[in-house]
UniProtKB/TrEMBL annotation, chains A, B:
Its cofactor is Mg(2+). CDD domains: Trans_IPPS_HT (cd00685). Keywords: Magnesium, Metal-binding, Transferase. It comes from Desulfonema limicola. One of its GO terms (biological process) is isoprenoid biosynthetic process. This is Polyprenyl synthetase. InterPro entries: Isoprenoid_synthase_dom_sf (IPR008949), Polyprenyl_synt (IPR000092), Polyprenyl_synt_CS (IPR033749). Belongs to the FPP/GGPP synthase family. Transmembrane segments: none annotated.
């Protein structure tokens, strides 16, 4: 385990445990099957990044209401709901190293359990008694659904532009992380400057995280990833490493890359050839740099807060966004 | 058209038109495809029962804030979201006389557009600035998802009891109509007695509506229904007419009925034979009576309100629940 990961895990241990407990206690399910399916996705080793970010954001704002772990479950339930629906949409077979829920329980149950988790997150949001929080949560869900649909309509579009990619990942990933951080500030009854700073921190962190995630599909391996590498490409999803390389490639290389991309049954040899192209045309490097810019922006947003353990951890998480291997 | 239907349509005309306008104006979509799919389900001749009930409930409480049509879209978006997901879950091919959205656009788009509509309804709920309304909406969604899953797990269960059937239809249908009526009272800032009375009215109306709906599968025809008759049975869904007849039938007849039910490819001849059994063992009559009891309860709940046009229409709608043919 890398030093930074170890340091973060150590810093967030009490929050992490409080979140695990809250997730189990507040599922509020009345049917065994829902409990099982929700548990399948919820308790399979998630990082709890989103609830942790909400708790840390609350703490950096001086929150002391004692309900942060409870409220933070909003973001894990919401995240789990979208994973259930997205895996079904993408046809993904593995999730966190386990068979995806729709393969184990069927599409019907996966759809309905996703709906339930979405509703559960909203019920908990309503308990904040803060209509701005609820507005944020509803807005996240609207954006995520539209981001996923947008991505779906752009499948196999070899002409996808960087700007459109950015808009897709903003909606499908960054708004949720932005919302988690913003909610931490909102429940602390912080002023606009703190709310906006944490929202911006979350947005930039979310963009960096998704780019890092998209990179992993080309630089990691199936075992550490817990899902198949090359999956994005097999699903016809063009991400920044590929978009940039396609834009920069010679005509001959571009045609070769397009052939591999459109043939979703590519061999390992072909996939490696494509990866070489991503390096040759600096698709990997460019994406790393873009992600890095966002982590720098994220950290800058924290400058208005005085030093604290929570601030240090939020900075570490931004650095870790780029360093992670899975 | 029956006299009562004509009378209701005439009474609610201004509300109906305001709701249609609000549904178009507040979809708040940024992608053409989402707009098209949402429109496919939203603008295919729905009765707008749920938003109408919310508007009438607000009016019976003396609401004059002028935002009832806007807020009432919550309940049509929510309803449309569940139709999209349920049709997918049930594999239903027809909806309101048109091919179901998942057949036209695929499961992926149907799931995600459902998510979007769900989120949209919550965004509008958050604009009420009323956390009790939001709690109600989130609770509806939780209940509906669990009700659908409950029904799914009871498929082809020939031993399904009336009580369990009642619990399933409460969750999958009645809570939404209850919530629409309750929200009408809540946005009017009415006291507990009005809020509870309208919630109870909605609950009982919802129960009666679902029972009437389940009856239509045996007493209507595909053309007036806009979807295939006998569909419930083909999906393995046992509803009250069947549950009651199975409980009352002689052993010989019960075995015959069970054979038809478990053979989902039943012929028209077999389906008619089953319908004869439902009549012979009073499954139809019993269900009609149960539904009628609920409409009586619903109407009684309105006694605390003074006479008004809205009250008269709410009473008419309760009567119509039983009289409708589609």
């Amino acid at each position: 385990m890398s030093h930074i990961k170890y340091k973060i895990l150590n810093q967030v241990k009490p929050d992490f445990q409080a979140i695990e407990t809250a997730l189990k206690e507040n599922l509020g399910v009345h049917l065994d099957l829902v409990s099982e399916v929700a548990g399948h996705i919820l308790f399979s080793g998630g990082k709890r990044l989103r609830p942790l970010l909400m708790c840390l954001s609350a703490r950096i704002c001086g929150y002391s209401g004692g309900r942060e772990a409870f409220f933070s479950t909003i973001f894990e339930y919401l995240h789990a709901a979208t994973l259930l629906h997205d895996d079904l949409v993408d046809g993904g077979r593995l999730r966190r190293g386990k068979p995806a829920a729709h393969f184990v329980y069927g599409n019907e149950i996966a759809v309905l359990t996703g709906d339930f988790l979405l509703a559960r997150s909203l019920s908990i949001a309503s308990e904040t008694q803060n209509t701005e929080v609820i507005r944020v949560i509803a807005g996240i869900t609207e954006n995520m659904a539209q981001g996923e649909i947008h991505q779906l309509t752009q499948k196999e579009n070899l002409k996808l532009k960087e700007q459109e990619y950015m808009e897709i990942i903003r909606r499908k990933t960054a708004v949720l992380i932005e919302g988690a951080c913003k909610t931490g500030a909102l429940i602390s009854k912080s002023g606009d400057s703190a709310v906006n700073a944490l929202a911006e921190y979350g947005f930039n962190l979310g963009m960096a995280f998704q780019m890092a995630d998209d990179l992993l599909d080309y630089i990691s391996d199936t075992k550490s990833l817990g899902k198949a590498v090359g999956a994005d490409l097999r699903e016809g999803k063009l991400t920044l490493p590929v978009i940039h390389a396609l834009e920069s490639a010679s005509e001959q290389d571009r045609i070769l890359m397009e052939k591999i991309i459109l043939n979703k049954d590519f061999s390992e040899y072909e996939f490696n050839m494509l990866k070489n192209m991503l390096n040759k045309y600096k698709g990997i490097e460019y994406t790393k740099n873009k992600a890095k810019e966002h982590t720098i922006c994220a950290k800058q947003m924290l400058s208005i807060f005085k030093d604290s353990a929570a601030k240090e951890t939020l900075i570490d998480i931004a650095d870790y966004a780029l360093a992670r291997k899975s």
